[in-house]
Write a structure and sequence with these properties.
The protein is α/β, with parallel strands linked by helices and about 200 residues long. The chain has 2 domains: about 5-25 and about 75-195, HAD superfamily/HAD-like (Rossmann fold, 3-Layer(aba) Sandwich); about 30-70, 434 Repressor (Amino-terminal Domain) (Orthogonal Bundle). About 40% of the residues lie in helices and about 10% in strands. It has 8 helices and 6 strands; from the N terminus they run H-E-H-H-H-H-E-H-E-H-E-H-E-E. Strands 3-2-1-4-5-6 form a 6-stranded parallel beta sheet, with helices on both faces. It starts with a helix and ends in a 14-residue tail after the last strand.
Length: about 200
Amino acid sequence: MPAVDGWRGARAWVFDLDGTLTVPVHDFDGIRAALDLPVGEPILEAIAALPPDLAEARRAALHRIEHDLAAQATARPGSVVFVRAVRASGVPLAVLTRNDHGLARITLRRIALDDCFEHVIGRNEAPPKPSPEGILRLARGWGVSPADVVMVGDGKYDVEAGRNAGARTVVVGDAPWAAEADLRVDQLDELLPLLGLPT
């Protein structure tokens, strides 16, 4: 695990959205079933492999499902406090999600964090995680090294994207891939002491 001083030296933070800043509600197996996609396959990649007309119909259906979930989003405990504290410290923040950009903005409004993120990168703005491109693009825009960026998420793709970019990684929750991250927490406000921020 990086030393405390290393976490305080982080120059930018990138967050996954669904299940990280929000209470996890996505039933991915149920979504695959509703879209008639193969069990266990990544949803976006499975849709992309379909013939164009069928893929477009599945994307529209996925958008409807995700819109309903975004309209019901609630903040994960500790996330609002943490994001606002880091934002107030002057460190730049971004959201990098496999969700649609517009739906991500709806979700952020629902959890009262829409004013904290200048950058929201969805699946149509950059290759979706586990690709590191979204993180690398943000780091270039901020003028920081990827090694000084922290990627925070609840999913395996979040950890892989962070590692692929050379960023530090934090997993929220108790998932099997948490051991692959630099740090695991139950909720984000547990990170405040590591950053020297008030709890």
